């Protein structure tokens, strides 16, 4: 017994309304065409055709993902490790790479300033030793960062008997040998907490 056919005029008049996407109209027409084709086909083949059709990816959804604006992607948060001892610098870099931060290592304050000049708006954390090789030490670097890039979180460290150096406001001091947990706490704060307002 033949299955009653849908009223094609009613079907098209229902879908061809203002504001209905062409993709939706096309899908409706395709499903109507599928019903015509599968009629007269043995039931097991018709169900196989339907299963194959359902397993195909949805091109509309794929286009929506592909067309997602770039502004929805997550912003980059950068951590700069400033340490003249290569082994300690590598240790700090490896530790910070376990966080959401992108990590750049610098052997001197001057190298760190070069990175800041290029990517200062992305820098969430500056983790610097106070004693550095080069003309500028970590305290001078911290003061420059606090003045020019005040949204970056500053963490200073030293193992030379410095108890509490004269740090910029909101900077943190961690004595060496620092514990990984203490550094990670500051990194998580830098990545997740809102940046302080620029005064």
TrEMBL record:
The keyword Phosphoprotein applies. The lineage of its organism: Bacteria, Pseudomonadati, Pseudomonadota, Alphaproteobacteria, Hyphomicrobiales. Pfam families: Response_reg (PF00072). This is CheY-like chemotaxis protein. It comes from Methylobacterium persicinum. Residues 78-191 form the Response regulatory domain. Keywords: Phosphoprotein. The modification 4-aspartylphosphate is found at residue 129. PROSITE patterns: RESPONSE_REGULATORY. Gene3D superfamilies: 3.40.50.2300. It comes from the Bacteria. InterPro entries: Bact_response_regulator, CheY-like_superfamily, Sig_transdc_resp-reg_receiver.
């Amino acid at each position: 017994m033949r299955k009653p056919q849908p009223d094609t005029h009613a079907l098209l008049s229902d879908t061809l309304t203002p504001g209905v996407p062409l993709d939706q109209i096309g899908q409706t027409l395709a499903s109507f065409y599928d019903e015509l084709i599968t009629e007269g086909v043995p039931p097991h083949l018709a169900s196989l055709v339907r299963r194959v059709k359902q397993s195909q990816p949805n091109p509309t959804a794929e286009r929506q993902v592909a067309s997602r604006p770039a502004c929805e992607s997550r912003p980059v948060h950068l951590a700069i490790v400033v340490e003249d001892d290569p082994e300690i610098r590598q240790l700090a870099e490896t530790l910070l790479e376990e966080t959401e931060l992108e990590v750049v290592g610098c052997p001197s304050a001057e190298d760190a300033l070069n990175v800041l000049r290029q990517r200062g708006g992305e820098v969430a954390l500056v983790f610097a030793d106070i004693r550095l090789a080069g003309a500028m030490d970590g305290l001078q670097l911290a003061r420059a960062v606090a003045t020019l890039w005040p949204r970056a979180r500053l963490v200073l460290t030293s193992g030379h008997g410095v108890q509490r150096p004269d740090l910029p406001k909101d900077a943190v001091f961690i004595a060496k040998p620092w514990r990984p947990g203490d550094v990670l706490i500051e990194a998580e704060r830098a990545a997740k907490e809102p940046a302080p307002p620029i005064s």
